[in-house]
Amino acid sequence: MLRQVKRVVVKVGSQLLAEQNGLNRNFIAKIAEELSILKKEGNEVILVSSGAVLAGIKVLNLSRKPKSLQEKQALSAVGQPYLMAAYTEAFKKHGYNIAQVLLTAEDLRSKRRFTHAKDTFHALSKLNVIPVVNENDTVSVKEIKIGDNDNLAAHVSVVVEADLLIMLTTTDGIFDRDPNTFPDAKKIDIVNDISELQLTCDFSGKSSFGTGGMWTKVEAAFKAARKGIPVIIANGREEKITVRILKGEKRGTLFLPKKELKAKAYRILYLEKPKGKLIIDRGAAEAVINKGKSLLPKGVKIIEGTFEKGDVVEVLDVNGKTLFKGIVRCSSRELYSFDKECIHRDDMVFL
Questions:
Q1: 154 with 18, same domain?
Q2: Total domains in the fold of the chain
Q3: What is residue 302's three-state secondary structure?
Q4: Per residue in 294-351, pLDDT tens?
Q5: Which residues contact 73 (CB under 8 A, 6 or more apart)?
Q6: Which pTM value belongs to this model?
């Protein structure tokens, strides 16, 4: 599988980029050297990097993290140029130029914007430029916020149709417990099913697992894996870790690809924010789940929220269990008077 990799997305988080005096320039030099090696070996490389807010804190000589969304946005605006300057200098030593790519969830939800983003990455690759991607925190509000760079990395790997996503952290992979707290924690080498992982692992610890915890990384990895992209979570502090992975060394934890979702299904399931909920009766649930039917308005018992034609909604059974997400073909106002299927079978994605 790794021998076939030609396009790789690498994600680095704040814990790897942070040091007492701000940005860890030694790590930035390290990752630039590694990715330059991968480029020289004929691979396309996309870097997803945190660190803008961290750089902003350092530039303004603050001693704390931002307390509000507005303050975080301001610090990101201050820090992003310094972060990019550090990467520019590091990659220049190896003969490569970089490009700044800032994205929001809205850029990825729209099919048109999704395609434009894909075309931009393709053009940068032709120019032999390494994209450095971050969330556009300066303009991201709750409605268009991706939320963390683990999920951003998964989404970017889908946009560029990556052959591999490498998520670098400060541990050697996924463990059944936090290895920083429990020395006897056992590493998970291969993940095939996320539900099995939930049963065997404790992801409650956050001390050294990044701002979203290790579970955030697991969920993001599984999203990419469901789109057919293998994911490896590994220790970014190891010497030439990305180079060693692409040479076939067994490092970190591998999430096996599943190839379950097409691009449209991925957008519905992971990018679109549901605008409402439909609670359907047992007959409708039976028809949809077991008989492969579309959802008719007569099967809807309760409508929650306000939505328009083309919006994504969440569909639940009478017990409150989420069955699927889908694109509605009518608004919430006209649903009960609609004389066709309100969600067509082709517009459903099952959980």
A1: yes
A2: 2
A3: strand
A4: 999 999 999 999 999 999 999 999 999 999 999 999 999 999 999 999 999 999 999 8
A5: 137, 138, 139, 140
A6: 0.89
